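User: Could you go from structure to sequence for me? I need the amino acid at each position, not a summary. Structure tokens:
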């Protein structure tokens, strides 16, 4: 049952209710693609002159790609200006959970016309899986100095505020009440707070981090200039803190941070109230 004002239960072309991604994935290709296409911000379609009906650009080539296997409760959506481009403009991975919630695994919205920073690969151009297999320090320094956050290969299009209401409406139309996610970096967690997310796990750590960066406290003292990512003054901004944490200033893994958004409600959490 939908909860947002004016929203309705999602149904297929025959009027059968749909409650999960697995239900949608059982539909014919054209039908499920047009259901999933509603999640993509309209501004992105217009910015890159892509038809929201055919998913093709002005040259007739396909720009939107869906991976939604029948029998599975997951979906990947990629918008690429060319099929073999290294980076997608829009990349989304979502999945059903066993508790009838929606997992927002990844949402990346790149500006493809900005410089690329190879923070996602090692010195041999091999994917480092979000630094699990090592860091590309020279590229990270370049990215940080250009104003990007950890793991960003390009500047973003600042389109998440366009995406989230569409996604909430979609989740609500499936009768789901919660979106769950796992922020991969400190700045992701702070950003999600801004959009109304609360913590399943990790709120205590976020508060400890804020306290630790206060003047004279443990993380503040470690901003000693010993690496380019630990410069004095970094405690004042989300950008500075996030890079310092990425650099290991906590001396423990950034791990087990789980967040959720209740559809139609904003939690009002702010674990860094004095940010600049």
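Assistant: Here is the amino acid at each position, in order:
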């Amino acid at each position: 049952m939908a909860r947002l004002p004016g929203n309705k239960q999602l149904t297929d072309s025959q009027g059968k209710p749909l409650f999960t991604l697995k239900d949608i994935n059982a539909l014919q290709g054209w039908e499920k693609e047009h259901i999933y296409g509603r999640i993509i911000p309209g501004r992105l379609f217009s910015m890159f002159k892509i038809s929201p009906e055919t998913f093709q650009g002005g040259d007739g080539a396909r720009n939107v790609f869906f991976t939604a296997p029948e029998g599975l409760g997951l979906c990947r959506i990629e918008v690429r200006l060319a099929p073999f481009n290294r980076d997608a403009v829009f990349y989304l991975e979502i999945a059903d959970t066993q508790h009838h919630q929606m997992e927002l695994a990844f949402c990346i919205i790149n500006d493809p016309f900005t410089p690329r920073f190879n923070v996602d690969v090692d010195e041999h151009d091999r994917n480092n899986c979000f630094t699990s297999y090592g860091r590309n320090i020279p590229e990270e320094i370049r990215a940080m100095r250009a104003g990007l956050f950890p793991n960003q290969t390009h500047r973003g299009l600042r389109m998440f505020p366009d995406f989230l209401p569409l996604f909430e409406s979609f989740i609500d139309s499936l009768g789901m009440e919660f979106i769950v996610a796992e922020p991969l970096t400190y700045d992701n967690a702070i950003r999600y707070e801004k959009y109304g997310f609360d913590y399943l796990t990790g709120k205590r750590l976020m508060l400890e981090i804020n306290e630790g960066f206060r003047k004279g406290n443990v993380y503040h003292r470690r901003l000693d200039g010993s690496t380019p990512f630990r410069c004095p003054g970094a405690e004042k901004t989300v950008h500075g803190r996030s890079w310092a944490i990425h650099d290991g200033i906590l001396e423990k893994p950034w791990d087990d941070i789980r967040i959720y958004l209740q559809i139609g409600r904003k939690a009002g959490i702010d674990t860094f109230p004095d940010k600049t």
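One structural detail worth keeping in mind: Residues 160-173 form the longest helix (14 residues).
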